[in-house]
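Hi W., the acetamide complex you wanted:
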Amino acid sequence: MNLVGTTAATVVPRPRRWSESAGSAVLSDGLVIEAGAPCEGLGRLLARELSAPTGWSVGAVEPGTAPGANKVSIGLSPALGPEEYRLTVSTAGVSVLGGSAAGAFYGTRTLLQLLPAELGRRAPLGQVGQVGLPATEVEDGPRFSWRGVGLDVARHFMPKRFLFELVDLAALHKLNVLHLHLTDDQGWRFQVDGYPMLTAVGAWRRESPVGHYRDGVSDGRPHGGFYTKADLSELVSYAAERHVTVLPEVDMPGHMQAAIAAYPELGNLTSPLEVFTSWGISDHVLNMEEPTLRFCADVLDELMDLFPSQYVHIGGDECPTTEWSSSPAARQRATDLGLDGPEQLQGWFTARMAEVLAQRGRSLAAWDEVMDAGAPPGSLIVVWRAEHARRIALAAARHGHDVVMAPQTSCYFDWAYEDSPDEPVAIQPALSVETVYGFEPVPEGLEEEHHSRVRGAQCQLWTEYVGTPEHAEYMYFPRLCAFSEAVWSDGSRDWPAFEERLGQHVARLDARGTNYRPLSGPTPGQARVWHQPATPGRLPGTD
Ligand code: ACM
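Structure:
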């Protein structure tokens, strides 16, 4: 079986420039990947990725040592920016040049998309002879340096294998940050040696809501899970091989009921709590006493041992101050600290956590609420609240903060695709693929001189209503494909053209087995409501 590849016109996210010429590269069994430092790892990865679906023997060798044209040469070019690449497909074979190992990696992601979609499978469909790739030259690079995908593993624990798949899918779309929301009221999801009850107690909840939580119905079934340190180290190195940085988030001082259930002395009450069994925001937050701050610092220390990311996300969103206001100890603490009232405790807490991170050369990332008290210098603000997004983004950038945009109305993939009873229960209607595609990360009115403060954007999947990897894939795809164009490709948009490309691109998702939502709407198996087909079919030949 001989196969023919496709053109750069079908690649998602859309490359900056490409040209086509006569001829083709012909790849076959015995293919050689030439890759020198610092791309040897990439050479080995690509060899695995190409041998699995073809059954070919694919070897990785030193640069300049492969005779003939049945080869992919990977190297660096000082003429290219750090994440840029040039991919050349010709009768002499395939060449990928990157401005860095990351750039070369993105060149290989484009190469994978130029292959016939069926080579996105894990094993050959039959004997694969030659694969012809039409001659082309692609020059490409990202618009933004922060291209994130967020996953909430606290509301529903997601198995480790899904995190690896999500890294692969993110990398295929040239995204480079996986933001893991590791803790919340409803569950604590990572091992902390100094505080074993966080996982022994905090990782498990008695039951969860069924349907929309406002309906007040529960399933009566326990739920939970957590990642060991080995799991997370493995994930970090798997992601690094694919130029994805894992950004860990421990949400504090609110969204902490699971930790307080494990260690009641962290809270403001004398009576014990259980891990939160509803969705929504718990009123139970950390107290602001020194032992609690030591706990937070210890947890962050263990987190920094595992995650090498420059930024560590400390949450900071949706922290109710009702408990602090009614707690004599919290009010006294605020007075002792010279604050005007307990509602100022969060700003003080955030500054203390920034110091903890700075001691190890790291920087703080947090949700945009931390701007309310004036965020510590050097912190990165992740903007999410739709109604304030533009105002906060402008203020943060003008104050010299780096900003990552994740406004709900463009980036919250826990919203339904459509306001339709067919869609699975979701927190909100509706965020269509077209709306995501139209997302412009730089807020209107931001002066040119501050544009570079907008590092990029993140799509977010909160999982109150998303209990399985299959459902998570449904919520991500194909919105993530559209999002990748908003953060990678230049600022121009052409929805009809994208829709057509997406129609071809989903063949790549089909080959992987990704549970994406068809543009026409959920399949009967994905929908919430069962619809009988309007007209039953006829057996062939019975007319
Ligand atoms: C958030 O959605 N609470 C960041």
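The chain has a mean pLDDT of 97.

W.
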